[in-house]
Amino acid sequence: MHILDELEKRDLIQQTTDDDGLRKHLDNNIVTLYCGFDPTADSLHIGHLLPVLMLKRFQKAGHRPIALIGGGTGLIGDPSGRSTERSLNSPEVVKGFSEKIKEQLASILNFDQGENSAVARNNHEWLASLTFIEFLRDIGKHFSINYMLAKDSVESRLEGGLSFTEFSYMMLQSFDFLNLYEKENCTLQIGGSDQWGNITAGMELIRRKRFENNEEEAEVYGLTVPLITKSDGTKFGKTAGGAVWLDPEKTTPYEFYQFWINTDDRDVIRFIKYFTFIDFDEIAALEKELEEAPEQRIPHKRLAEEMTKLVHGEEALKQAQKITAALFSGDLTSLNAAEIEQGFKDVPSVTIENKEIGLIDLLVEANISSSKRQAREDIQNGAIYINGIRNQELTHQLTEEDRIEDKFTIIRRGKKKYFLIRF
Strands, E, within 38-169: which ranges? Predict the structure, then answer.
């Protein structure tokens, strides 16, 4: 299937600058394309996944992707899709963020695939050496104020205030496209739908520069992916704990797996099309499973498996599934300390110095029960579980058998209230 046909079938194309021209261009060339990622944090989050995976789809179709890290533009801040100005980070911080993002991109894209290997570039290399006068003479003169004001990313911010720093961002990104076109024969830029104005501005800059140099018109294109929305009206990629990061230190593989497995029934097939490489026959089968047995959540599990394996690898997926199964069954004795850390990252925790503490004293000291009297009632009523196993012994003293790798004990009170005890 032609790459554009596949993208259309997956509902992944919001706009193209010239659909017929791009189709022919892709048919006749190994096309170099790029997408930019500004280092605004020390990790990408799942909001970045769609454009990263678009690069991967083009690579699988035989084309050459460039992952452009905005070490230069990240010092400025893109106003697109924002109602307020970004806070500016120091050059040292942005450099550190850039290096971490490069590592994450390398784990998803194939940087060792011969003729169409993906490459990472950092626009700090060419933007940092520009002088202000150079920039105004060589780039700024090709942008009329009226042209820039008409762009959605600028127009939507004018009433609330837009600094000259942000206003100049479009020119910087346009210069990126020009630079990659001239040095790497990059002829296609992709991005989110909020990048349409920046992409078309870059194409216009290339056209003007070539006209200025009496060169024939360039064959360059732009393509955007849709803004991801959730059927329940909440923002995609956000949880009660904040953003869902690709860095396992910020969002554990278990949390990452749970995010996907908890996808709304109304969104799950759409997200499978968007984010996975599952073929259309299997997608149709999963859609049928959803219709006939929604309670089994088979598509949700498949989505969670594919995404966790893609971002964190096979072993992390197995670990996430193991933690999920243990929590579902209530038997926590099969989990090791690292899995306990993941699965109970957000539950209340307390450190206890006395490893041989009595159960009643533990319940009070950890604020699981409000008093010794309440603790006795909880134990006698069968409301207390140690590592998933009910314990009704009022005289029970915790021993090594109650500690997982001599580090943790999980106390459950009632059906859902978990507490992590650290020793």
Answer: 64-69, 119-122
**Model pLDDT for residues 195-239, shown as the tens digit of each residue:** 998 999 999 999 999 888 888 888 999 999 999 989 988 878 877
Strand order in the sheet with 119-122: 15-16, 221-225, 186-192, 32-37, 64-69, 119-122
Q: Is 169 annotated as a binding residue?
A: yes
Q: Which ranges in the chain are annotated with CATH 3.10.290.10?
A: 349-422
Paired sense of beta strands 389-390 and 384-386, if any: antiparallel
Q: Tell whether residue 257 is among the known ligand binding residues.
A: no
Q: Tell me how far apart the alpha carbons of residues 2 and 9 are, in angstroms, rounded to a whole number.
A: 11
Per-residue pLDDT of 66-109, as tens digits, reads 999 999 998 887 666 555 666 778 899 999 999 999 999 999 99
Distances (CA, A) of 160 to 74, 156, 287: 22, 8, 44
pTM for the predicted model, two decimal places? 0.86
H or E stretch at 178: helix 169-184
- CB-based contacts of 163: which residues, under 8 Å, 6+ apart? 85
Residue 181 in marked binding region: no
The reply, when asked if residue 416 is annotated as ligand binding, is no
Residue 237 DSSP code: T
Q: What are the C-alpha distances in Å from 219 to residues 3, 182, 188, 203?
A: 19, 12, 9, 9
Q: How far apart are CA 305 and CA 317, in angstroms?
A: 7
**How far is it, in rounded angstroms, from Cα 380 to Cα 307?**
44
Cα 310-314-316 angle, rounded to 5 deg: 95
**90 token code pair:** 């120091």
- Sign of the four-CA dihedral 292, 296, 298, 299: positive
Question: Which CATH superfamily hosts domain 349-422?
Answer: RNA-binding S4 domain (3.10.290.10)
Could you tell me if 221 and 69 are in contact, meaning their C-beta atoms sit under 8 angstroms apart? Answer: no
Neighbouring C-beta atoms of residue 234, cutoff 10 Å? 11
Domain 3-225 falls in which CATH fold?
A: Rossmann fold (3.40.50)
Q: Does domain 238-329 have CATH number 3.20.20.10?
A: no
